[in-house]
Amino acid sequence: MDPTYLTLEKCREIIEQKLFNNSTKTANRDFVGLVGLELESIPVFCPFPGHHQKIPDLFGHDFSVANALLEISRRKDQNITGYPDKISLSGGSGFQFEPGGQTEITTRPCQSLTELKNELAFCQEIQEKVTEEFSIQFIQHGINPWFNEFEIGLQNNKQRYKTMAQYFDEIGPYGRKMMVQSCSMHINLDFGEDWDTRISRFILSNLLVPFSSVLFANSAIVSGKKSMHKSYRRFIWNHLDPTRTGMLDLKGLSGLPDKDWIIDKYLEFVLNAPLIYIEGTDESEAPLKISLDKWLKKPV
User: Fold this and answer.
1) What is the DSSP letter of 93?
2) What is the dihedral of CA 155, 160, 166, 172, to 10 degrees?
């Protein structure tokens, strides 16, 4: 089989090997796996205490968010790569930039919570120095509490983000809100060395979604006004795109499923989702408005 030619069988293989496999191997029975963190924040420009917040530019000039982070990062680490798309520090952690200018700390995979804490603290020290020297603060809210999606705009103008915005705009107002207003924290965990552990963790992660939504709500204020929702971010995701968001359907399931059930369920979910962006296509060719299943049968 040509490895570059995508088929239904290849999609299933990718899901099994890339999403539900685990490369971490250890003889230590107490070791539960690697842990990483992606922590997003909203940059705001506030030159004086109590001064009205402003939206800083993500790219472009000396006082842009990316350039300020780059300057401070280079003082601590001369071996930075990836700029301007991201700032990769030599230790493996760094910063990435979301469509609305949100800044994301990405830690390297760590072997303990202590190690993870140290990696996070190192990146946060860089952000704190940016605040001190450039008056750019990094605020952690589920939703930007001051500015709406049109005031913020699409600050990271990659083609895939422009195509995503076009796709979501045709569905409703919530996709663009998600892209440029929202922030989140992703906790990345190993799935485990055996399939029983991986299945248990996958099911548990789905069951914990309602609880984590409550614990990390922090998004009741939207565009300077109090909304009707404790977690407006969760409200956005509930109305975003039913073909590609939501929890795994566990109805009728008695006990833990086997790995084929999970892979097939995930594959079915992926196949029914409309394609948004294919790398290498130009703006006129996307979004395609067809499902992955139909595209696999007849690529366009």
Assistant:
1) -
2) -80
